[in-house]
């Protein structure tokens, strides 16, 4: 008997937009997910920055096309063109900053009005490594997320807490075979793999 042929994996592509006020750690969150790295002094995003990362769920490879948007108010009018046609969004706030949580609520209302109706939205309370000086209570944010049908996790770009997990949770909620381009063999893409890529497509 010959060796059984390995079935190629199916790749699905999804556009994900990262939203939130300035200095909540959006770029650090993305860099932790994509590169597995954290820098204390992260450059301010101008307009938006683009990244890609893949994770595997069973026999499907999910490729995230990530738009990390600027949080400064002067860029607000430009951000809508980035979440247009997005399949998912991560709205980030700083657990030390109540104003950033209120700003997150504003972004969520805007997404509900202007983004695709089936968009998957996650609420991320970032800087969880500083929970001892938190201002936004975990239960407050969790209740808001539950009332609005959002995924919710507290994350830490610094330690990596729940960073991979929140993207994995998004991937599990997204419709499969979205804009996929047929079965493909997996090749290294230059990005450091997330924990979810272990034992992929074996």
TrEMBL record:
Record-level Gene Ontology MF annotations: GTP binding; GTPase activity
Taxonomic superkingdom: Eukaryota
Keywords (A to Z) from UniProt: Nucleotide-binding
Pfam families in the cross-refs: Ras
NCBIfam families, A to Z: small_GTP
Family to which the UniProt record says this protein belongs: Belongs to the small GTPase superfamily. Rab family.
Name of the protein described by the UniProt record: Ras-related protein Rab-5A-like
């Amino acid at each position: 008997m010959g060796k059984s042929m390995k079935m190629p994996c199916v790749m699905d592509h999804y556009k994900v937009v990262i939203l939130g006020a300035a200095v909540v750690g959006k770029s650090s969150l993305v860099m932790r997910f994509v590169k597995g790295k954290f820098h204390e002094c992260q450059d301010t995003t101008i307009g938006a920055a683009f990244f890609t990362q893949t994770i595997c769920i069973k026999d499907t490879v999910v490729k995230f096309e990530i738009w990390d948007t600027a949080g400064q108010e002067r860029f607000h009018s430009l951000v809508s063109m980035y979440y247009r046609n997005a399949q998912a969004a991560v709205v980030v706030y700083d657990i030390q900053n109540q104003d950033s949580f209120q700003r997150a609520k504003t972004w969520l209302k805007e997404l509900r009005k202007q983004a695709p109706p089936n968009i998957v939205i996650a609420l991320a309370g970032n800087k969880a490594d500083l929970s001892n000086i938190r201002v936004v209570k975990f239960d407050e944010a969790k209740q808001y997320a539950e009332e609005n049908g959002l995924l919710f996790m507290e994350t830490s770009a610094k330690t990596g807490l729940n960073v991979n997990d929140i993207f994995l949770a998004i991937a599990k909620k997204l419709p499969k075979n979205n804009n996929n381009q047929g079965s493909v063999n997996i090749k290294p893409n230059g990005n450091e793999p997330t924990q979810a890529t272990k034992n992929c497509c074996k």
